[in-house]
Amino acid sequence: MSGAVRIPQFDATRDEGAFKEALKAKAGEVIESGVFILGPEVACFEEEVARYLQVKHALAVSSGTDALVMALMALGIGPGDEVIVPTYTFFATAGSVARLGATPVFVDSSPCCFNVSVEAVQAALTPRTRAIIPVHLFGQAADLEPLLKLAQERGIAVIEDAAQAIGATYQGKPVGGHGTMGCFSFYPTKTLGGFGEGGLVTTHDDALAARLRILRNHGMEKTYEHVLVGGNFRMHALQGALLRLRLPRLPDLIEKRRRHAAHYRRLFLDSGLAADPVSRCVCGQGVDAALPDVPLLLPFTCNDPHTFNQFTLRVRGGRRDDLRAYLAARGIGTAVYYPRPLHQQPCFQGIPSANSSLPRAEAMAAEALSLPMFAELREDEVDQVARAVVEFFK
Ligand SMILES: *Cc1c(COP(=O)(O)O)cnc(C)c1O
User: Fold this and answer.
1) At 1, is the pLDDT very low, low, confident or very high (cuts 50, 70, 90)?
2) Collapsed DSSP state (helix, strand, coil) of residue 206
3) Separation in Å, CA 205 to CA 46, 183, 266, 373
4) What is the phi-psi region of residue 126: left when phi exceeds 0, alpha when psi lies from -120 to 50, beta otherwise?
5) How far apart are CA 82 and CA 84, in angstroms?
6) What percent of the chain clears pLDDT 90, i.e. is strictly above it?
7) Given the CA of residue 199, which atom of ligand 1 is nearest to it?
8) Confidence at residue 107, expressed as pLDDT on a 0 to 100 scale
9) Which residues is 371 bridged to in the sheet?
10) In a 3-state reduction of DSSP, which class is residue 49?
């Protein structure tokens, strides 16, 4: 059997021809304009994406990671401060906190979806807590309402890490507009994939928006007058110009992902190998129901519809890595998001919460397998992937 990849986990080259031509023409325009950093294209993108996200301010920045760093900087978070983060997320969620000298406090996941447990967040609050960073992991909104309530009672901030969830909603309203600030990424694998690095910070707060704008450009208010220590967090003009072309397509791109997910779901349920981990969302309740005794747990949709930046199964019985190798041998790409929760990362040893046992996230790290998922994936490819998974268990 050839090891060549026939169905990649992600493919950034499959845009339709006419759209690719529009991108090339726009890139040519930007090159001719001589404006390469921020400029009118980025300003227009900010306006358009703010409208789409229903937020007052949207600031285009250099990456999703920088968006998080800037959000924390705008709040003045630093040494002695604690910020509560899920342990089961991409590194940047906690790395941004540690880089500013503050302490990430790692908490466990919900029993039903891959998002943070509200109960665990509540238990981790201390007088030093300055912010909570819920992550809308894999394109599914975290259970924000109880988190916003906890934060409001204590006068602390909620920074939504919406890097994987542009276009997702919570209680019908786009994510990124519920908390104090929202952070997005345009890394190519994200649902609104960019053309290189890029990110966005959103807020309804005028004062925070003004601070973020200054921080983005080395804390400079007037030319060479630095009122804050910021950084170079500016977006490239080319990025803004090309994202402007892709943004109107986003609802359709999300719809396609949802269709693929529904198709996977149907095929796995029909196979008898899979079930939802729970019958209803228990995010805020912290109750660990017994997981169904099946080889595959499906991604569970809590609250609002999932946008499936990733379609992530839980492969039970210690067979995840074998299934992954089996699929790879058949030319099917998969990814493991994430093999090691953050509280177990070498760089965080020594942080108090790194010594805790966070069993749900540890189980997820051992079981998670993300199947091929991108808008341009074809239905027959979804069939082939699901068939290969089912064959593995025969
Ligand atoms: C991708 C990602 C980031 C960082 O975004 P970059 O643009 O890659 O810097 C932050 N948090 C989460 C959850 C992500 O998935």
Assistant:
1) very low
2) helix
3) 16, 14, 43, 35
4) beta
5) 7
6) 94
7) 7
8) 97
9) 311
10) helix
pLDDT tens column, 45-90: 999 999 999 999 999 999 999 999 999 999 999 999 999 999 999 9
- What are the distances in angstroms from CA 360 to CA 107, 116, 271, 323? 10, 10, 26, 21
Sequence-distant (6+) residues with CB within 8 A of 169 are 141, 175, 304, 305
Residue nearest to atom 10 of ligand 1 (CA): 92
> Residue 105: CB within 6 Å of ligand 1?
no
Q: Which atom of ligand 1 is nearest to the CA of 136?
A: 13
Ligand 1 and 203: CB distance under 6 A: no
Q: How far is CA 230 from CA 79, 226, 233, 257, in A?
A: 17, 8, 8, 37
Residue 251 corresponds to which tokens in the numbers above? Answer: 């609802």
Read off the pLDDT of residues 222-263 as tens digits, 9 standing for 90 and up: 999 999 999 999 999 999 999 999 999 999 999 999 999 999
Q: Report, as an integer, the average pLDDT of 264-290.
A: 90
Q: Pick the residue with more confidence: 372 or 288?
A: 372
